[in-house]
Design goal:
The protein is an alpha+beta fold. The chain has two domains: about 140 residues, Jelly Rolls; about 100 residues, Arc Repressor Mutant, subunit A. Helices cover about 40% and strands about 20% of the residues. The chain contains ten helices and twelve strands. α2 packs antiparallel against α3, α4 crosses α5 and α8 crosses α9.
Length: about 270
């Protein structure tokens, strides 16, 4: 996997992760993340392996990748491809979903007009921060579009939304700690096994995977090209540099070094 001077990722302002990327060849290795990836293909052919099949998206089509689903990314025609993407946390959709299981789009690529409108509201303009009422409305519209198109993954027991929210808040507050199911059981007031099943139903990943991603958030925020990876690993809760690198590649399909090279100023 290699990147030339025409490969780049440019991030939008604000805390909500949105970006535009220009990549070529085999851009990403197989990986899983804890968010929905909502993308619009801008140029070229954006191809990826997903749920046992090759999928292809051309300009104007919407890509929807479900949390914790293995996928990769590459140019479908051997040339550069460009896309805009938002990483949407399942927790951001739960206010609209009301505790229902996450909607699932098995195809991964869509031409649906309502979903296109919702995606455009998220990533149509990456020059401005998306916040306040505009952000809230974008999440509501996206949740409704996904629910209309997708199916809910089966979960037969009732999920306690409040218990999951309490467990998530505890992990958010202690990402570099050795969080155990005992801790989550205590703060949520729910049996650990029922909590774990409900956590995955509402947020798409297990509590442990959610914890790893919060540590990776800390690590990425520290990657400035100057701070040693070993220091970043220790500060973000990983045992050592190799532990960080292994989880980083599993989550993003890139090594920390590749990620830092891509996240540079866009060429004029």
């Amino acid at each position: 996997m290699s990147f030339d001077e025409t490969s780049w990722i440019v991030r939008a302002p604000g805390d909500f992760e949105r970006f535009e990327a220009s990549l070529n060849g085999a851009a990403y290795g197989p990986h899983r993340h804890d968010t929905y990836a909502i993308a619009i293909t801008v140029a070229g052919v954006q191809s990826f392996s997903y749920r046992g099949s090759r999928r292809h998206s051309v300009p104007g089509q919407i890509v929807v990748l479900h949390p914790d689903e293995l996928h990769d990314g590459h140019a479908g025609d051997g040339r550069h491809f460009r896309y805009r993407s938002a990483s949407v946390a399942p927790s951001a959709l739960q206010e609209a979903l009301g505790g229902r299981a996450l909607p699932f789009l098995a195809e991964g690529v869509s031409d649906d007009a309502r979903l296109h409108a919702a995606a455009t509201a998220l990533i149509g303009d990456l020059n401005q921060d998306l916040c306040g009422l505009e952000y809230d409305q974008a999440m509501l519209d996206l949740a409704e579009a996904l629910s209309e198109l997708g199916s809910e993954q089966t979960y037969h027991r009732r999920v306690d939304l409040q218990a999951v929210a309490l467990a998530r808040a505890f992990i958010d507050a202690h990402p570099d700690s050795n969080v155990r199911l005992d801790d989550l059981e205590r703060v949520s007031g729910q049996d650990r096994w029922q909590l774990s099943r409900g956590f995955r139903a509402l947020l798409g990943v297990s509590p442990y995977r959610y914890l790893i991603f919060r540590r990776l958030d800390t690590a990425r925020a520290m990657m400035n090209g100057r701070t040693p990876l070993a220091e970043i690993a220790a500060a973000s809760g990983f045992s050592d540099q190799s532990h960080l690198t292994r989880h980083f590649r599993s989550a993003y399909g890139l090594t920390p070094a590749q990620w830092q090279r891509l996240n540079r100023p866009r060429p004029v």
